[in-house]
Write a structure and sequence with these properties.
Elements (H helix, E strand, L loop, with lengths): L2 E7 L6 H9 L7 E7 L6 H11 L6 E5 L6 H10 L5 E6 L9 H11 L3 E12 L7 E2 L7 E2 L16 E3 L14 H12 L1 E14 L1 H5 L4 H5 L4 H8 L5 H15 L5 H18 L5 H29 L1
Parallel strand pairs: 1-2, 1-4, 2-3, 5-9
Antiparallel strand pairs: 4-8, 5-6, 5-8, 7-9
Helix pairs in contact: 9-10, 10-11
Length: about 300
């Protein structure tokens, strides 16, 4: 099997058909399977999937699993990977869909011909499902070839564009984390480079609830276990960059974070970011200092309403 398209789905009855149809529409010369892992959806997601399996000419490509009780997003994602037989894994959320009919072919061909790359991704089209916001591009790294030095950058690519070699996966991949996507990108960086295609390969749906929904400080803190996991498989990862990266996510994505916790996370981000980029050039030191403070101020402005409520 060449490619396993791994789909995690929960309460996606409105979108799962479009998701699956976008895979069937792929113009791919190799062999592929579709692993669909339904995390015990309470809606009609399962009914729709079973109808497609029974009626679609390519329905037999789908291997369907339902978790009872549900596993949660990270464990369900890893469960989908465990069922994959493909040499490569393509990730797709059940409410997203492939835009480019050559997506699998482009990424498959690239990795087949470039053994020093462990993964490929691309730009995506951000679609605001229930908000009056125009769709736009996601990736800030379009057309680039990234190394482990870049894997802590922001907005590399959205997960539904990710395509990677299955053999990079590890049995001790952390399960009690929030950010399976961040861990996957960092893990890919342990074994090679990542190509980010210029083209928009997949959609990325955003919802009013998902935009405002942020995990707690305590839950977000669990992602720090990713650091020793990544360092285990590639000790050459810069520990300062890794710490700066996860302190940034802690201050940026924690819901209802107090001012005290925010400034603790911000201070740690500032220190590790500064040290990771330190140079003896005074002008560059000034720019690092200035940009780090600018980043913190921007995050604070975005979160100020929440912070004031907690103070």
């Amino acid at each position: 099997m060449d490619v396993s398209v791994c789909i995690t789905t929960y309460k996606h009855e409105k979108y799962i058909k479009e998701c699956l149809e976008s895979i069937f529409a792929q113009e791919f010369s190799g062999t592929y399977e579709i692993i669909v892992c339904n995390d015990n959806s309470p809606d009609n997601t399962e009914v729709i999937i079973n109808e497609i399996i029974a009626s679609h000419p390519k329905g037999s490509k789908i291997k369907y699993f339902k978790n009872v009780p549900n596993l949660g997003y990270v464990k369900n994602t890893l469960f989908s990977f465990s069922k994959a037989l493909g040499k490569y894994i393509s990730v797709l959320d059940g409410d997203d869909y492939f835009i480019d009919q050559q997506k699998l072919q482009k990424q498959f061909d690239f990795l087949e011909n470039n053994s020093d790359f462990s993964a490929a991704a691309g730009d995506s089209l951000v679609i605001y499902e229930d908000l009056d916001i125009p769709s736009h591009s996601f990736s800030q790294h379009k057309g680039r070839e990234l190394t482990k030095e870049n894997m802590t950058d922001l907005k590399i690519a959205q997960t539904s564009t990710l395509f990677f070699r299955k053999d990079i996966l590890k049995e001790d991949f952390p399960t009690e984390i929030i950010s399976a996507d961040r861990c996957l990108y960092l893990l890919a960086g342990c074994y090679g480079k990542m190509k980010v295609f210029e083209a928009q390969l997949s959609s990325y749906r955003q919802f009013k609830d998902s935009i405002s929904k942020k995990t707690t400080y305590e839950s977000m803190s669990k992602d720090f276990v990713i650091i020793p996991f990544i360092k285990k498989y590639n000790p050459n990862y810069d520990i300062l960059k890794l710490k700066a990266y996860f302190y940034y996510t802690l201050m940026s994505y924690s819901r209802g974070i107090s001012k005290l916790r925010f400034f603790k996370a911000a201070f740690a981000y500032f220190v590790y970011n500064f040290l990771s980029k330190f140079t003896l050039n005074p002008q560059k030191v000034y720019l690092i200092f200035k940009w780090s403070l600018h980043t913190i101020r921007n995050v604070y402005k975005r979160e100020v309403t929440s912070l004031q409520k907690q103070s």
